[in-house]
Model the fold of this input.
Amino acid sequence: MIRYSTVSAVALAASACAASAETTINWWHAMGGELGAKLEEIVQGFNDSQDEYTVVPSYKGTYPETMTAAIAAFRAGEQPTIVQVFEVGTGTMMAADGAIVPVYQLMEEHGQDFDPAAFLPQVVGYYTDTDGNMLSMPFNSSTPILYYNKNVFEAAGLDPETAPKTWAEVEEFSKKIMDSGAATCGFTTGWISWIQTENFSAWHNQPIGTMENGFGGLDAELTVNGPAQVKHWGNLKRLADEGVFKYGGPVGGDNAPPMFYGQECAMIMNSSASRAGVIANATDFEVGYGMLPYYDDVEGAPQNSIIGGATLWTLSGKSDDEYAAAAAFYSYLSSAEVQADWHQFSGYLPITQAAYDLTREQGYYDENPGAETGLQQITLNEPTENSKGLRFGNYVQIRGVIDEEFEQLLSGDKDAQGALDNVVERGNALLQEFREQNQ
Amino acid sequence: MKRTIFRNQLLPWLLLAPQLAITFVFFLWPAAQAVRQSFLREDAFGTRTSFVGLANFEKLWGNAEYLNSLQVTAVFAISVTILSMGLSLILAVAVDRMIRSSRIYTTLLVWPYAVAPAVAGILWWFIFNPTIGIMPYVLAQVGYDWNHISSKSDAMTLVVIASAWKQISYNFLFFVAGLQAIPASLREAAAIDGAGPVRRFFDITFPLLSPTTFFLLVVNIVYAMFDTFGVIDATTEGGPAQATNIMVYKVYFDGFVGQNMGSSAAQSVVLMMLVLVLTVVQFRYVEKKVEY
Done:
């Protein structure tokens, strides 16, 4: 008995030794529910694939909560090696050059086979500096697309296989649908900021700010009150008054999806990553997919849409071993198999051409209509300086300003020009504040 | 009066130490940090810090959103206080007239106090949800289109109701206790003199209740300004268009979501001062009118 317990004590000590020989790094993320479970599966795959490094994922709540937790931890010297940050936090992370380790530098220093050209430029462009260096590792990226109710289209006498291409068609189809009584509202949308303002601008090749939408530096200012955007917001207001468009609330527009699922609204514009959720909830009807609508009288439309989602940032102040672990993990994460699996499971875009090709070879897009729509949309044209993304500081608040001014427009307190002028004015004040904080 | 005298000089301090330590660690130290931060300008990660004097405060006075927040807070705090104190006084007076059932009634009325603010917020959010709630459905029957997501006044009404509801139990308990302390002989004497129930309430009960009312006034205003964070966060998140963005919520949002620590700290210092001033004013001026 004594001998037995001695042996097990030795075994225990040995296993403890083996564990301490490994480098353990922390990854703070914001993926709850099924996505979180899948993320842990991916991490487990990495941990099992080699015995040098262990990645420990921790769920830290919503995107803002995760980012805030990481920043607070950094200030206390307890930061994780890797943190997942949403796209609007990009400006803040990039400006904090003492707090982050750029991905290209990390991969170079730790001898990982890293070819920036292997990534989809439309995805990584958002997270690349003006010299073409990748600063963070894209993890979950999506782009907005149009979903429509095929049954309602058919009931209204429309072709259920044809999605509206232009905003004129959206209006025409909506009115037909409402007149026929097939549904009581034409369309709704998630994300007034991300979809109807930022993506709208990129899709029509219109700038939302100076200096390449802020990519050029901290001195950029907003210019989102251009004629195309004013016309679009004005149209949304008019359609809202006519009952054709229904507003789904600020930020992500939480009330929009239920209106589509409940067959109240015939169309919805929302993230390509919500495809699985849409299919799961659309129990009584068939879903059709289309690209975002555009105005055919705006020159350059349709250009390409931009992404949203989150990337992985590496924080400074860690040991070499820990960075080696992070670099090895990024290599694993961007491999075609892992990416294709994540893309197919979650609906997020693949970040490399190889993962895109692999998914196509596997026949995934043939079996899952609509799954490729977002990809076709972001790769429709070579991105211009108006359509590769945006980079502004304090952008979480600026998105709040966009929502608030849109609400002022809907309530009739302001017209489209007045609301967008105010977005620019209030947004620029926030940018000025950010500039002062980071000088 | 007999007083206990400690010979040992150290013992009283030792006995006080836990309380002092808690006050220092959880109240004084964070407050001092907030004051310090309010004079600084920093990026989110704290890698670049500079002393800016009163610049953070100066900016607040020129900021339309902040001035709006002050106004929203005033409307909110006054409405919550009047609604919750008024209702609980009516309920307490009603209980005071009951003889046998008052116990059960009191116990039932205390329940909402056990509900956390965030849970209360969620409850009311469900009841008033424009898509799935019961109230918008009922209101639609009488021709009112309830939508606190786009209507500013609907949103304010919702947060006021949810916050006041939470506080009714607390006020109620104090009013009941206050009413029971008023000698029945006074009211009986007035009744004999021919005063009706309304007259008796305003001439006798209400003045004699004033210490309780005064205490509750202070507590309710402080409650409305600080403790309602959970209700706001769970229902409107300060929207639509900042219509329910009370000061304490703005402090949280600008600091934790917006990562603007300097401005957030300056706002919390202003808030601290405001509550301090309010309480002093209440004790100096309102208390003079109170009859103990």
In short: Chain B has 13 helices and two strands. The first helix of chain B runs from residue 10 to 37.
